[in-house]
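Q: My collaborator sent me two sequences in one message, no labels, and asked for predicted structures for both. Can we handle them in order? The first one she listed is below.
A: Yes, handling them in the order given. First sequence, followed by its structure tokens:
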Amino acid sequence: MNRKLVILDILCYAVIPYVIWTNGRELLGDYWAIILSTVPGFIYTIYRFVNERQFNILGLFIISSLLLETTVNLLSSTAESMLWNQVYLGFGFGVLYILSMAIKRPLALYFAVDYAYLMGYARKDSIALYNRKELFSSFQWLTLLFVIRILFQNTFKAWLLSTYGADAYGQMLIYLKISSWIFAGLIMIGFMIISVKINKLVEQLYGAA
């Protein structure tokens, strides 16, 4: 990810929402301040989705997540219930990742297939390659890392809510964004390690290019 995208991520997912929250809660109340603070991230994610043409499993997963989160936010009656519902939804996504591992269809594998497709490789070829025993367990472990990220962030969010209530929302924006970047780095390293394994396996199967 280039520097421009990093800056945009920080602005749209943390800085602007934090400014809206801190300056809007007295005028609008906690509930609408939180609702409005999610708008920049929603618009930015849609923009990235369309701009990068992620019409694939990863893209559909992102859009579906956004729609579910927005629906939960709008249906919640208070600011605190909205935040708790976000926690429950987050754990629900964790269950989805776990189920994908249980049925031997780890989501990380299909995210990698989407990336390979953008690089010009046929999906069926990538799926066949990534499901080989030399690589499959690595995608299971990487999917588990996604689960750990979800469990950590939502457990931490639940702790802040239990301790401080909706007043902790500003802290959540900052702390969760920091932890999100840490896990994003770990996940990127995981994909890089798998990429090395893929290159070695392709060389063994088909010889050096």
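Q: And the one she listed second?
A: Here it is, processed independently of the first:
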Amino acid sequence: MHPQLTEETMKELILIFVAYLIGSIPTALIISRKFFGIDIREYGSGNMGATNTFRVMGSKYGTIVMCMDILKGVAAVALYNFLPLYVHSEWDRTNLMVALGLAAVLGHIFPIFADFKGGKGVATLFGMVLAVQPVIAASCVGVFLLVLFLTRYVSLSSILAGLALPICVLWIWNDDVAVYRIFAVLVSLMILFTHQKNIIKLLRGNESRVPIFKSRDRRRASR
């Protein structure tokens, strides 16, 4: 095998591992311990993600965790800049960016720094899509915010935003890059898989709403 190819492959693997470590940073766990003296995984749904943080620690800290988890996805994808060879090669760059982003998502779901018990990866996944395809990411976040405003179900918002991704990629913008199309479908399937329990709760009508838009709800109740 050509020595240069071996060197570049090793660099790719190192960056993918670094991306996994970035995704493994247990944001919700750090904040829950620092500001509340608790382990977020022992409360609510037991999940170490933004949704459970909203439920257990409120909208302020839930928003902080969500933003930091999004930044993990963005930072992981940005690691491709350490391989200048790929800056001018769209195909290789796209493949590497997707690999880096997925490594961060995997790290969030199975964090090495938190006994491999993490969150569902939606916020980090959004950060990844934001870094790879910002216009499509903006469309998905629009779906997320609209559903969240109407229902206050973060899980339902995440599921519908995830389903909006392949719709945007395959039909609305009709992106012809094969890796994007495959990625979009896999992402929607992953979100459905990681939200199986939430889907059951939604169908049964006992899914928890997050404590946001309380003033709006009070106004409605007083009418």
